[in-house]
Amino acid sequence: MKHLLSFVFFALTLLSFNVANAQNYNSTFGQVAYGSGNKDFQFGNNTEDGNMWLITFDHVSEWSYGGNYAFINFMAADNMIPDTDFDGNETHKGPIRLYTEWSPWLSLNKITGKDLGFWIFKDFSIEGQLNVSYSSFYALLGGVGMTFKTSNYDTFLKLMAYYKASTFGGNTDHLAQITGVYDIPLSRKLGVRLQGFFDFIPNSNYYWGTDFLAQPRVLYNLGQHFMPDKFTKLEVGVDVYMHYNNFVSVTAPQAAVRLTW
């Protein structure tokens, strides 16, 4: 727990950090979501009736040679089902659980000072990632990323391939993981967009089998009618948590409110 709290402090510091160079992109959002179907005992968002609050703080920023991405999830419900280890022993109980990630990257375009993109590729990157949970789970990832060219400034597509060392209860799995991140306007006129990610772990003697985790979100920019600038957004929409493997099959729709600045 001490290591988790130290990382949370670091991540919160990162979330509040403002990039001095105005040419570097940075964005932060806070989101509150509530929904049903939360029965994922593997990752801890597991309640008796499936209903749960999810509070997220999320930040992305660029610097001279790359960027940082981090988020913190607080999962809350009065009727959380206690976690157990593989032997059935209770490991955690309580109304609040926490999960956080930090993903730094180095950009080939930024390091070289040249536009090395070609064909459908805008940039290539060296990727890292650290996952830390309230339980004894943590993971270290390293790999490469590809950012795709798009015809519009408000569209983002990126694909990453990782080596992942995933540790839980003192046991470490060595895995491959494919991660995709996207932000696609569905209607600029209406202010509606599709945003989210997916993680895919192919089966390679992994206890859970082939694993697919995704969280697509459809968001409507309600704040476009009264917010002071186009970079500050108040959005409402639907956030769908999806997780499937040999033991878990969860689809959890959630109503969401998000403030981005």
TrEMBL record:
GO cellular component: cell outer membrane
Swiss-Prot/TrEMBL keywords: Signal
Keyword Cell inner membrane belongs to the record: no
InterPro entries in alphabetical order: Channel_Tsx-like_sf
Residues annotated as signal peptide: 1-22
Keyword S-adenosyl-L-methionine attached: no
Coiled coil: none
Protein name: DUF5020 family protein
